[in-house]
């Protein structure tokens, strides 16, 4: 027996022009308007989340990042103290 997915309802007031546009687009794709809108909203949400979680670097930034990984700078006294504090905090947990 397949598991049933829970659902939630979403309502929105839109202009009649937008409604007509959505209806036409759904008809072009041979979908119901609900299916078209849900799919479009899901795609937009996924793009927004991916845009927020992906870091994009210029070529120069990529090279600087790779160089820092391959040849990290020497630890300064402040960095050594920070690592020591971090280690102490992790042992305390």
Please explain how this structure is put together.
- This protein is mainly alpha-helical and 93 residues long.
- The protein folds into two domains: 16-53; 59-92.
- The protein is built from four helices and no strands.
- The chain has helices spanning 16-28, 33-53, 59-70, 77-92.
- α1 packs across α2.
- It is elongated and about 65 Å long.
- It starts with 15 loop residues before the first helix and ends with a helix.
Secondary structure category? mainly alpha
Query: Helical amount among residues, as a percent range?
Result: 55-70%
Number of DSSP E strands: 0
Q: What is the typical, i.e. mean, pLDDT? A: 92
Q: Uncertain segments of ≥5 residues (pLDDT<50)?
A: none
Task: Give me the number of helical elements.
Answer: 4
């Amino acid at each position: 027996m397949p598991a049933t997915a829970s659902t939630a309802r979403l309502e929105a007031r839109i202009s009649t022009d937008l409604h007509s546009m959505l209806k036409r687009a759904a008809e072009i794709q041979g979908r119901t308007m609900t299916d078209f809108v849900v799919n479009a909203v899901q795609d937009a949400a996924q793009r927004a989340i991916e845009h927020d979680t992906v870091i994009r670097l210029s070529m120069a930034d990529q090279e600087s990042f790779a160089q820092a990984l391959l040849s990290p700078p020497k630890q300064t006294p402040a960095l050594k103290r920070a690592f020591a504090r971090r280690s102490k905090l992790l042992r305390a947990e």
